[in-house]
Design a protein that fits this description.
The protein folds into four domains: 33 residues; 156 residues, Four Helix Bundle (Hemerythrin (Met), subunit A) (Up-down Bundle), CATH 1.20.120; 48 residues, Arc Repressor Mutant, subunit A; 82 residues, Arc Repressor Mutant, subunit A. Helix content is 65%, strand content 1%. It contains 21 helices and two strands. It has a two-stranded parallel sheet. Helix 9 crosses helix 10 and helix 18 packs across helix 20.
């Protein structure tokens, strides 16, 4: 009888366990459907928990705090698209995600890392949705809109053979890679090379070739593998995205221009572009130099330097389209006005201008300045007699007299000979 009761008790416990397992599975399946069908509701709930933990003035949150706010049953079912949208909501709430590993990296290379703008990541959810959709299924056709040479096609075919990793496999490889397993590190890198392609193709046309962008992105991916801490629970692809994008954007800042400009100046130019775009949206016109100086809180002279540095240099022989296989491809040069001066002519004019200015400087300072203002040597604009008179606080007639006297001096045989030599030489 006792044995029978024990059996009944065991069967009862076994039944309870089975029912609990079923309940757990049903609950997990229900959560999966919730994530899939009502992502906004889940996001709002997690954000509510995070904001509850933050103090009044705190505007940063760690990955660990995010993990604590996410029910454990949900973590395996989160898609990368969901996480991107979630980070975007954090951005809208002015909450920055802080990671100790990346923070340490910033301290090591503080000046260069100013251009990363990691808090700008995930600012456009639709854009990043497309990136990670490509990551799941990268083929050669995905780059039809990019000019491809055969080496790139071969590379794309090769990396398409790598299988995507399951979350459990990813954690195992990350753990082994952290312990120094070179094979695990290599497999983790190969499995995420598609992500590099997806990100790199968004930056085509910014000064670096597609192959260069891929190469720089791969370097960022390798750094991500070296720094990744699998114990924190977030996906490697989410983490590595930051490093890949950082490597590509830094390479564009360093190498994308014919004349390299400092990274801190690149940051200023990017900020200026955002300020100008916002001003245009609000006022319907482009701000002038003085308005831009006020908006940027910088002196006018400094803003002139920034505007000059912001100008891009491009080749006149650059093709209009990206299709390198097209025959008779049009170039930028084909659309340049035929009456426009050539670079050689512009260079010749600059040299003549400099040498003429040297001859003018042989006159008295006042005479030289009047001639320079009248003929546009100062700022490229010819001043009227009245404008020059106001500058020297004299009448326009007096300026005309000084100008005539100065021109007569330039016609002196010695100076005249110098001018004739310049014109013959150039």
């Amino acid at each position: 009888m006792i044995e029978k009761d024990k059996n009944l008790d065991f069967e009862s416990k076994s039944t309870d366990c089975t029912q609990a397992d079923k309940s757990s599975k049903v609950k997990k399946y229900s959560l999966s459907l919730t994530i899939k069908n009502s992502p906004n509701a889940i996001t709002d709930e997690i954000l509510r928990k995070i904001k509850k933990k933050l103090s009044k003035d705190q505007k940063t949150v760690t990955f660990e705090e995010i993990d604590e706010s996410i029910p454990s049953q949900m973590r395996e079912d989160f898609t990368l698209e969901f996480l991107i949208n979630f980070y975007n909501e954090l951005k809208k709430s002015n909450i920055s995600v802080v990671d100790s590993t990346i923070h340490n990296f910033y301290e090591e290379e503080e000046e260069e890392e100013k251009n990363l703008e990691t808090n700008e990541v995930f600012k456009d959810p639709e854009e990043y949705d497309e990136i990670f959709e490509d990551f799941a299924d990268v083929e050669v056709e995905m780059c039809d809109n990019i000019s491809l040479q055969d080496p790139i096609k071969i590379y794309l075919k090769e990396i398409s053979k790598s299988k995507l990793l399951t979350p459990s496999r990813e954690r195992k490889l990350a753990r082994r890679a952290q312990m120094g397993d070179k094979r695990a590190r290599e497999e983790l890198i190969k499995a995420n090379l598609r992500l590099v392609i997806s990100i790199a193709k968004r930056y085509v046309g910014h000064g670096l070739g597609f192959l260069d962008l891929i190469q720089e992105g791969n370097i960022g991916l390798m750094k991500a593998v070296a720094k990744f801490d699998w114990k924190k629970g977030y996906k490697f692809s989410t983490y590595s995205y930051w490093w890949i994008r950082q490597a590509i954007t830094r390479a564009i800042a360093d190498q994308g221009r014919t004349v390299r400009i400092p990274v801190h100046l690149v940051e200023t130019i990017n900020r200026m572009n955002r300020v100008v775009n916002k001003y245009i949206q609000e006022n319907g016109e482009v701000p002038d130099l003085e308005e831009l100086s006020v908006l940027m809180d910088k002196p006018v002279d400094k803003m002139k330097e920034v505007l000059i540095s912001a100008k891009n240099i491009f080749s006149l022989n650059a093709p209009i389209s990206n299709d390198v296989d097209a025959e008779g491809e049009s170039e930028v040069l084909d659309f340049v006005d035929s009456d426009s001066p050539t670079p050689d002519e512009e260079g010749r004019k600059m040299i003549i201008r400099q040498k003429m200015e040297m001859i003018i400087d042989t006159l008295s300072p006042k005479e030289a300045m009047i001639l320079k203002m009248r003929y546009g040597f100062v700022d490229g604009k010819q001043k009227t007699l009245e404008e020059v008179g106001e500058f020297f606080n004299v009448t326009r007639e007096r300026i005309r007299q000084i100008e005539s006297k100065s021109i007569r001096k330039l016609k002196h045989p010695a100076r005249k000979k110098m001018i004739e030599n310049i014109m013959q030489e150039y």
